Amino acid sequence: MEIQQVQRRLYCIFWAYIIITTLLIAFFETVQPQLNLPLSAVDTFWIVAIMEMLTICAIPVAMKLTRFSFVKKRITDINSLQKVLMLRLVVLAGLMVINTLLHYLLHQTALGYLAIVLLLSLVFIYPSLSRCQNEYEQTQK
Q1: Would you call 63 exposed, middle or buried from its count of C-beta atoms within 10 A (0-12, 13-18, 19+)?
Q2: Confidence band (pLDDT; 50, 70, 90) for 25?
Q3: What is the DSSP secondary structure assignment for residue 1, as one 8-state letter?
Q4: What's the CA gap between 61 and 87, in Å, rounded?
Q5: N or C: which end of the chain has fewer CB atoms below 10 A?
Q6: What is the pLDDT of residues 82-138, one digit of tens each?
């Protein structure tokens, strides 16, 4: 497998998550379904607190994922690099989708802000060809 194929796959995943999030926003902003979730204020508090902690912890870990020594040791070829970069992308983009969905379901603005922060953090891991090549070279040192 070539680095261009890895970049194309990551690129497709990157935009797929952004499109999914955009479709969720468009759906909830236009249809505005009246969902009565049987959650108490305590349940909502815990969901928001858990999502805040997950998001705050996941961003720096995902950004530095290829710099950890135990991850560097496992990146031996392009396939293993693809798995690591895909994991990083899926964690951040997946949290963005979950935070967006929960924002509309629970009507908690904090979750919306977390989704925006995750969208901004995705800019720093945009899967360009030069970034993929650079990360592969850094893990081979």
Answers
A1: middle
A2: very high
A3: -
A4: 11
A5: C
A6: 999 999 999 999 999 999 999 999 989 999 999 999 999 999 999 998 988 888 888
Structure-token match 């204020």, residue found: 41
Q: In this structure, what token pair is assigned to residue 12? A: 């497709």
Tell me: the pLDDT tens digits for 28-59? 999 888 777 788 899 999 999 999 999 999 99
Taking the model in full, what pTM does it have? Answer: 0.91
* Residues 93/13, Cβ–Cβ less than 8 Å: yes
Q: Smallest Cα–Cα separation from 61: which of 50, 70, 49?
A: 70
Largest CA distance in the chain: 55
C-alpha 118/C-alpha 47 separation (Å) is 17
Instruction: Please report how the helices 109-123 and 78-106 are oriented relative to each other, as an axis angle in degrees rounded to 10.
Output: 160
Give the model confidence (pLDDT) of 67-86 as tens digits.
888 888 888 888 888 999 99
- In order, the DSSP letters of 75-128 are --SHHHHHHHHHHHHHHHHHHHHHHHHHHHHHT-HHHHHHHHHHHHHHHTT---
